[in-house]
């Protein structure tokens, strides 16, 4: 089968492309923007990429067109497809029909931590010898790829609540039909498609409805929003984590005992930081148990977990300044990321460099939470390019600790001017951020040379 993917460089669609290629299909694709790490992975697989959505692509005549949710009405190629009457489908639908059928699907849902927890769970199940398939919205460093078919029954998938396609406004995860589902947390996000938190809770309950009675829901017991989801109806075994009655931890996030209903069952010692990663680990251990992985086996696997690219990833050091890259973009994720780095570096200065780039942040829905999210940073630098609201006004409660620029080059110069040896510069964005990491490192080296 020849499939042509519209929006192929998104993390989900790029992973789908990798799976289709591994399954023996001919895969091509197009996108408006192409940047690493997904573009590198696709080219390494021999997948031809086309820049843009020129209707001339109709000449490829694939067997099926797979349409990503970045494509909307008015897209030139999509309009041509509709006029031509050719067969098309969504990415989640294609995945459900051609990859997930017959597998024990293990889905990881939540506002935060999906990519990391999915990667943890895939690694745990892999180390237990179950040879899982997986699709992750990032590149787990233990595997080096974002997706693979696997030979065993389990298939671990990052289960996104964002909508499926312009012609299917259901959340992606309703297509996956999991037997094991992690509900990691639930806050308001995706303000471009959801009116309020209640509308997201409704979609999460649609996911709960698809889990069979023999399935397992692994639920963050600290989240009132998830309790409301379950109160709508639940037909499967439910286990909680993060609370003493369920799966809990005793110790520090980098070294803790795992307790199940108050009884010690394992010990985790690893390199990851932050309370959020401790909770992610508990969820992965509880979910892996459902496919027969003992907690102590899971804990040993986590000791060798290498995290995901762009999760507090050290990109380099220059002039005694360390520069990190992180995917954080929601205020809660920014706060937990800064907290994780703070726990690591102690009293050393943290310079937070960020851009409100997600659709939700561009709308300004959560702008008032930004000062709270950056409380533990010593200095903050905001890239405000493309925003329809006043970032300086929103960040005013931070006083002189914050600087706002609409140019990345200007932002880089400000950061370099403020940075000194021993500092930690934390760059946070859900995009490429204009290559800010390399620009910072280069400018710091030039400062030293000068």
From TrEMBL:
Residues 108-288 form the Mur ligase central domain. GO terms for biological process: cell division; cell wall organization; peptidoglycan biosynthetic process; peptidoglycan turnover; regulation of cell shape. Its EC number is 6.3.2.45. InterPro entries: Mpl, Mur-like_cat_sf, Mur_ligase_C, Mur_ligase_C_dom_sf, Mur_ligase_cen, Mur_ligase_N, MurCDEF_pg_biosynth. Residues 2-100 form the Mur ligase N-terminal catalytic domain. Gene3D superfamilies: Mur ligase, C-terminal domain (3.90.190.20), Mur-like, catalytic domain (3.40.1190.10), NAD(P)-binding Rossmann-like Domain (3.40.50.720). GO terms for molecular function: ATP binding; UDP-N-acetylmuramate-L-alanyl-gamma-D-glutamyl-meso-2,6-diaminoheptanedioate ligase activity. ATP binds at residues 110-116. The keyword Cell division applies. Residues 310-431 form the Mur ligase C-terminal domain. Pfam families: Mur_ligase, Mur_ligase_C, Mur_ligase_M. Pathway: Cell wall biogenesis; peptidoglycan recycling. Its cofactor is Mg(2+). It catalyses: UDP-N-acetyl-alpha-D-muramate + L-alanyl-gamma-D-glutamyl-meso-2,6-diaminopimelate + ATP = UDP-N-acetyl-alpha-D-muramoyl-L-alanyl-gamma-D-glutamyl-meso-2,6-diaminopimelate + ADP + phosphate + H(+). Keywords: ATP-binding, Cell cycle, Cell division, Cell shape, Cell wall biogenesis/degradation, Ligase, Magnesium, Nucleotide-binding, Peptidoglycan synthesis. Reutilizes the intact tripeptide L-alanyl-gamma-D-glutamyl-meso-diaminopimelate by linking it to UDP-N-acetylmuramate. Belongs to the MurCDEF family. Mpl subfamily. This is UDP-N-acetylmuramate--L-alanyl-gamma-D-glutamyl-meso-2,6-diaminoheptandioate ligase. It comes from Caldimonas brevitalea.
